[in-house]
Amino acid sequence: xxxxxxxxxxxADGAATIYNAETxxxxxxxxxxxxRQMNVHQYSISPxxxxxxxxxxxxxxxxxxxxxxxxxxxxxxxxLLHDDSNAMLQFAQWGRGGxxxxxxxxxxxxx
Length: 111
Prior knowledge:
- This protein is mainly β.
- The protein has one helix at about 30-40, and strands at about 5-10, 15-20, 25-30, 40-45, 50-60, 65-70, 75-80, 90-95, 100-105, 110.
- The strands form three sheets. It has a four-stranded antiparallel sheet with strand order 4-5-6-7, covered by helices on one side.
- A hairpin with a 5-residue loop joins strand 6 (about 65-70) and strand 7 (about 75-80).
- The longest helix is centred in the N-terminal third of the chain and has 7 residues, at about 30-40.
- The model has no long low-confidence stretch (mean pLDDT about 90).
- Keywords: Aminopeptidase, Glycoprotein, Hydrolase, Protease, Serine protease.
- One of its GO terms (molecular function) is dipeptidyl-peptidase activity.
């Protein structure tokens, strides 16, 4: 998260929500229906708060998963790798700023 007084969590309804501890304000950034439809294993928000990275179809004991990107403004979901939506990646994570991503496919880093 961009500040030390905010955190991302799933609320009582199952939606991804940002909570601001200073203002006590909650902001829903992704509805619970996306979690259920995609069977999300893990999720994280981009530093610019425009996207949420979703880990789906997680394979136990292997670190392999498919990744999708949820656009907060229009609620569209797209594969992380447009040319291979079924690619199983070892790793994907947001960079330090904006909506940069780093990922690993077949033990090769992709940026």
